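Quick note —
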Amino acid sequence: MDCIQPLYKLFSTTTGYRWVIEGDIRGCFDAIPHDKLLSEVARRVADTKVLKLIKSFLKSGLMEGQTFAPTEEGTPQGGIASPLLANIYLHKLDEWYFARYGAPDMDVDRNAYVAWRRKRTRGKPLAATQMFRYADDWIVAVRGTKAQAQAIKEEFKHFLQEEMGLELSEEKTSITHITDGFDFLGYHIFRNEKPSDQKAVGVFVQPTAKGLKRMKLKIKLMTTRKALNDDYVRKIEAINAATRGWANYYRAVNPTMAFQELDRYVRLRLRKWLEKKHQIGPEQVRRQYMYRQTGPKGGTVEFAAQDVDEKWVWRYRTVQTRLSYHRPSFKRNWPNPYLKKVKSEQYILPTLKTLWGGYREAPTYEVNRREVLKRAGGVCERCGRATKLTVHHKHRVKRGKRSLKQADHRTEMLIALCGPCHAMEHKAENVSRIKTRNRKARQARE
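Predicted structure written out below.
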C-alpha cells in the first residue's frame, strides 16, 4: 500500500496534480542487457565470486520442452533472483529521475528547495512531478499541462532507450487525466469533482475492472457443468476462500461497489449451479438450500449447509469484510492494515463509549440485545413473522432525561419486532406525544 495510499493526498483538489503518465516497459524482464545489469550489480557487490555466479545464472539458458534456448539478454521470469536483479537495474531509472526532477532536501539546502519550488509554480515553464515505481510498473504524476507531461514522457523514452537499452511501449504508455482514472498495481484511481452519480467529491481507489472480471471468471469456472458432482458444503467453502482472500486484499481502499457486484454474481452463479446439479427451479433452491441466519445477523437469507460435525457453513459475502483505511498522514504511528499481529479494532477511530446513542454505544444494551435476538429465534415476538428483527424498548428511553445507568435495558423490558410492528410502535408513540402536547396546550389556554 506504500505506492497507493499517498495518491489520496497527491491527487486531491488542492495539490494541482492533474495528469498521470502510465509507464510500461516493453518486455522488461526479457530485454535487460546482461552487461549493463552486471555493471549495476558491481557498483555495490565487490565479491567476484558472487558476480560470476550471477553471470552464470543469467547465461544458463532455458528449456522449452525438449529444446534448449540460450539466454543472451533478460532475466528468466520465475527465477529466484529475477525480481531482485530487475529491481537493481531499474534503480538506475530512479536515480536519473531524482537527479533531473527530484526536489532538493529542504533540511539540507533550504535555498535550493525554494528555488526549485518557484520554478515549478503554476504558470512557470517547468512542471512538478512525483514518481511511483513498483518493480517494472511505474507512474509519474504531473502538476502542469498535458504538453509538459508529453515532454516528460519523451525524456523517459529517450533515457530508457539510450542509457538502459529498454523500450517504452507506445501502446500501453499513456497520459491520463485524473478524472478519467488510471490503473496501477491492480487498483483503479480516479477523482470525482462533481457530487453526481451518488458519489462524493474526492479521490477514490477501487479494484480494477480487469481484476473484478478475473475474479468473476474464477467463480464461473468453479460453478460450471463440469463441477456438478462436487459436494455442496465443499463448494461453499471453496468459494468463501476465494472471495474472502480477494476482499481482504482490497479492504484498505474504497471497494464497496465492487464487493456488492461480486456478491450478486456469486449468488447468481451458486443458484444456477444448484439448479443444474439437482434439476430444480430457483424457488426450490431458495426453500431447500437457503436459510435465515439467527442471532445478531438475524434476517439474512443466505446459502448455507451443515458439515459432518453439524456445523453450519454460510456463504461469505464480501460486503461483510471490515474495511481498514491506512492513513499515516492523518494519525501518527497508524498501524498498517496488512500486518497480521495488529487487530482490526485498532483502526477504528475512538468514540464516546459512555454516550447513549440509542443503539450500539451502551455496553449493557449491546449484550442484552443479543440475548433478546437469541430469545426470539428469528421470529417477531408480536406477530410471529420470520423476518429481520429490530430490538425495541417497551418503555421509551428519553435522551438527556436519564443517565446511562438509569436506562432500562433489561432483557424483560426489550422486545424483538419486525419492521411493520416496530413502525406501528413508534407511530403509537407519536400519536400519544401529539395528544399529550395538545392537552397541555388546552390546559394552558384555560
